[in-house]
Design a protein that fits this description.
By secondary structure, this protein is α/β, with parallel strands linked by helices. It folds into 3 domains: 11-135 and 258-435, 3-Layer(aba) Sandwich (Rossmann fold), CATH 3.40.50; 136-251, Domain 2, N(10)-formyltetrahydrofolate synthetase, CATH 3.30.1510.10; 451-533, Roll (Formyltetrahydrofolate synthetase, domain 3), CATH 3.10.410. It is 36% helix and 19% strand. The protein contains 20 helices and 25 strands. The strands form 6 sheets. Strands 1, 2, 3, 4, 5, 6, 14, 15, 16, 17, 18 and 19 form a 12-stranded mixed beta sheet that branches. Strands 20-22-23-21 form a 4-stranded mixed beta sheet. Strands 7-12-13 form a 3-stranded antiparallel beta sheet. Strand 24 (552-553) and strand 25 form a beta hairpin. Helix 9 crosses helix 11. The radius of gyration is 23 Å and the shape is globular. The two termini are 30 Å apart. The relative contact order is 0.16.
């Protein structure tokens, strides 16, 4: 018997069948002229520095931050909800823009996939955005590796700064998951090949230059932040910076075009700025300040997202990006799926298609913790239940009633299948929360607090840990960084995205656990201190079956197998 069940189109099929408008038409919708846009083909453009400068005195719109519960392999659809919410606001005749991060080739070719949304809630051209786009990440890789080459050349050419080659902390970078490059030796082959030393690679999105670019608001600030980056320590154990090397100008030159925000569109032709791409588990996980602030000047409502769950991206948005940019969210959308909640409740991935109210009830503890975390920042919250076909009516009813019992607004969202139409209810509820917002946004800690207090605050108030342990190395670094005057900087926690703890196997809402800080890394240009926890790495590896195995291109040059 032949099945009459309709085959669902893949994300790339939907994207390739969509009709794009010339990017200048999209720019015109938000008041940008042809001279304001630097074209990268017909459907991509960068906003010029001159155009951004002209926006300086414009009033700012309302900011909506989209975050989620801890991600699982079942998928949460945070980017999909972000795009769908922006489209829904425009369907309601609101002047709305979307501001998101650029995807890294590492997870695109690996296991996570791209970052342009999905179904009928996507930003386009998704093939370009998920691959080389406008070359921003490649520019960051080039600047990162130019600096690495300049450091090694300085040592080879006489080492005037007395750099201790055992204490070079600046790594090389490549925009790919490549575990073989985590630890390497450079300079082999004799005197003319340089000075041998241990080195390694980070994935480009973990480079401090990525964070610097995303937190800079103009060329001058970019240059200043680049100059402050620590690349090594000298023989007296004092930090050596880019300014000491005198190469901040060259790095700024390499990054001048990458600093300009990228303008694209959704399937429904909503304007979207896609710019910057730091991971939230090893960096601060937010799109660029320039893009977010430009969108706030151009639109009445801006929908942006932060990476992974509220314990990572949202926490860093509130404590790092908000401080740097002088902005705060007017409302937060917390995305959850019944599938992921069941996994947090102990269900295995192969059984998620089956109704399981018990697993769902147990998994709600994860959602509850993220709600509590966001409430501490004093921001209004709306829960977005990202609907999947496998969700049963009883499961949906259980989740909706639970949210209502908690006193939080909740919306059943179906933007993957319906685009903006599937997010109308969510948009209306978010608008009501914004209009009735009498809350005063409050970061979790003061910058004057010590690094140890900041770490302790995040671990206990955000993760729910009962305490923090430090390795001998980390404890010594705490003292050294305070002596350097770096204690006034915010903390960027590097932690697994899968769990509230630093153990990825502990799903749901773990209790009675400690967070272990194994190492601290100074990111003085970015303006924060990275605290490394657990076994999280700044250079991921590829899975046994990388997504790259299913990718190809047809005779017309169109991508195949890109989600």
């Amino acid at each position: 018997m032949t099945s009459t069940k309709k085959k669902l189109k893949s994300d790339i099929e939907i994207a390739q069948q969509s009709i794009l408008k010339p990017i200048l038409q999209i720019a015109d919708k938000v008041g940008l002229r042809e001279d304001d846009i630097e074209l990268y083909g017909k459907y991509k453009g960068k906003i010029s520095f001159e155009a951004i400068h002209k926006l300086k005195d414009h009033s700012e719109g309302k900011l909506i931050l989209v975050t989620s519960i801890n991600p699982t392999s079942a998928g949460e659809g945070k980017s999909t909800v972000t795009v769908g919410l922006g489209d829904a606001l425009n369907q309601l005749n609101k002047n709305a823009m979307i501001a998101m991060r650029e995807p890294s080739l590492g997870p695109t070719m690996g296991i996570k996939g791209g970052a342009t949304g999905g179904g009928y809630s996507q930003v386009l051209p998704m093939e370009d955005i998920n691959l080389h786009f406008t070359g921003d990440i490649h520019a960051i890789s080039t600047a990162n590796n130019a600096l690495a080459a300049l450091v090694d050349n300085h040592i080879h050419q006489g080492n005037e700064l007395n750099i201790d080659q055992r204490r070079v902390v600046w790594k090389r970078a490549v925009d790919m998951n490549d575990r073989a490059l985590r630890q390497i030796v450079v300079g082999l082959g004799g005197p003319v090949q340089g000075i041998p030393r241990e080195d390694g690679f980070d994935i480009t999105v973990a480079s401090e230059i990525m964070a610097v670019l995303c937190l800079s608001q103009d060329i001058g600030e970019l240059r200043r932040r680049l100059s402050q980056m620590v690349v090594a320590y000298n023989t007296l154990k004092q930090p050596v910076t880019v300014e000491d090397l005198g190469v901040e100008g060259a790095l700024t030159l390499l990054l001048k075009d990458a600093l300009k925000p990228n303008l694209v569109q959704t399937i429904e032709h909503s304007p979207a700025l896609i710019h910057g791409g730091p991971f939230a588990n090893i960096a601060h996980g937010c799109n660029s300040v320039m893009a977010t602030k430009a969108a706030l000047k151009l639109a009445d409502y801006v929908v942006t997202e932060s990476g992974f769950g509220a314990d990572l991206g949202a926490e860093k948005f509130m404590n790092i990006k908000s401080r740097t940019a002088g902005i705060a969210p007017d409302a937060v959308v917390l995305v959850a799926t019944i599938r992921a909640l069941k996994m947090h409740g102990g269900q295995t991935k192969d059984k998620l298609q089956t109704e399981d109210l018990q697993a769902l009830q147990h998994g709600l503890s994860n959602l509850k913790k993220h709600m509590e975390t966001l409430e501490q920042f004093n921001v209004p919250i709306v829960i977005a239940v990202n609907r999947f076909v496998s969700d049963s009516d009883r499961e949906i009813d259980t989740l909706i009633k639970w949210c209502e019992k908690q006193g939080v607004k909740v919306s059943l969202t179906d933007v993957w299948a319906k685009g903006g139409e599937g997010g109308i209810d969510l948009a209306q509820k978010v608008l009501l929360e914004i209009e009735g917002n009498t809350k005063d946004f409050t970061p979790l800690y003061e910058l004057s607090d010590s690094l140890e207090v900041k770490i302790d605050t995040i671990a206990k108030k955000v993760y729910g840990a009962s305490g923090v342990d430090y390795t001998v190395k980390a404890r010594k670094q705490l003292e050294e960084f305070e002596e350097q005057g770096w204690g006034v900087l915010p903390v960027c926690m590097a932690k697994t995205q899968y769990s509230l703890s630093d153990d990825p196997a502990k799903l749901g809402r773990p209790e009675n656990f400690h967070i272990t800080i194994r190492e601290l890394k100074p990111k003085i240009g970015a303006g924060f201190i990275v605290a490394m926890t657990g076994v999280v790495m700044t250079m991921p590896g590829l899975p046994k079956q990388p997504a790259a195995f299913g990718m190809d291109v047809d005779e017309k040059g169109r991508a195949i197998g890109l989600f």
